[in-house]
Amino acid sequence: MTKYREILRMANESFSQRQIATTLRISRTTVRNTLTAANEQDLSWHKVQEGGLEESQVRALLYPQKLIESDYEQPDCEYIEKEVRKVGVTLQLLWLEYCDRAHANGKRPYMYSRYCDYYRAHSQKNRATMHIKRTPGKEVEVDWAGKTGYLKDPVSGELIPVYIFVAAMSYSQYSYAEGFLSMDIDAWITANIHLFEFLGGVPKTVIPDNLKTGIKKPSYCEPDIQANYQELAEHYSTFILPARIKRPRDKPNVESSVNNLANKILGKIRNQTFFTLEEFNEEVWKYVDIFNTHAFQKKTGSRATLFAQEQDLLTHLPKTRYEMATWKVATVQPNYHIRVDGMFYSVPFQYISQKLNVKSTSSLIEIFKADTRITSHQRLQGRKGQYQTERVFGKHESSQRGS
Questions:
Q1: Which residues of 79-89 are buried (b: 16+ CB within 10 A; e: fewer)?
Q2: CA 82, CA 257: separation in Å to the nearest integer?
Q3: The model's pTM
Q4: Could you give the CA distance from residue 259 to residue 153 in angstroms, rounded to a whole number?
Q5: Do 162 and 296 have their domain in common?
Q6: pLDDT tens column, 293-352
Q7: Are residues 298 and 361 in the same domain?
């Protein structure tokens, strides 16, 4: 499904139509049509943010009567293989031409990722390979290492596993690592925040593996990004582009860094004993620095010297850190309130007995039906059992707190 919110968000940040199409792996025609429809409907990213519009709402505003999808134009892989060998011809150029040809034939083009899948499958049969050019400051690849470190419980002597988050800039291979006691979404979001702060800026795109904590629904073409991870991306003005399932070549630098860095760190500390995560990470970061400043074997410089060339191309960090939100499902009680951490918040009475999605931060409670926000409340503090109720009588609205 086309991500219309992301198209509008990127256009608002002055990305070109070509950059938007390449990043989201959709055709330039789709981008052009979306922006044209947005202009006709007077729909800007500012209005999307201001109105808290979800993907389905944006799509409905852009295309009130969306036409039925037609058949797809099939890529000519033999033609692709012949043309890509010519000087100045890239896979992206051929895909753009394919999109124009598909529209001329009255058919739908495949997204760039699917188009590449067809070519890769054909290339493997013919033992052909593709070189993927990396752009400075554009991408960072992130993953969990397959191997773990350990802490030792000072009382019981029990060994506690430490999971290692590893990241690498696609261009410079400049790397980061940090240990966590779990691989849940809290750890994943924290790791990404610490990564951006370590880099001193934010790359245009983040390429994670199709891990369950960050990617809710792994898919070859359109992975469903976990809600908090998508919000983090918007907060830091970056874009999440998951690697495809079982396609390690989509993230070769992090695959290499996972093996090299994790092995080096775990090998160096194998005879050391750590009682706290802070001690463990202090040692990890010492070897991360050594890893980044170590000279390349087959070319001049190091990961650190290459990263210095791309650091100025990163987006500036926002003034505030992203605030992690938690999600839960709550049933609306007969008094048209839901319970969140011992407090009660009202919803419209027609939702009585329904299950709704609740997003909570330290200051705000937001209540959703599917992807549509129904209402929001300032989060109650203090003694348990308090009520926050919004009642609407005609044009008059009142709010009260009570027990």
A1: ebeeebeeeee
A2: 34
A3: 0.57
A4: 27
A5: yes
A6: 988 877 788 999 999 989 999 999 999 888 877 888 999 999 999 999 999 999 998 999
A7: no
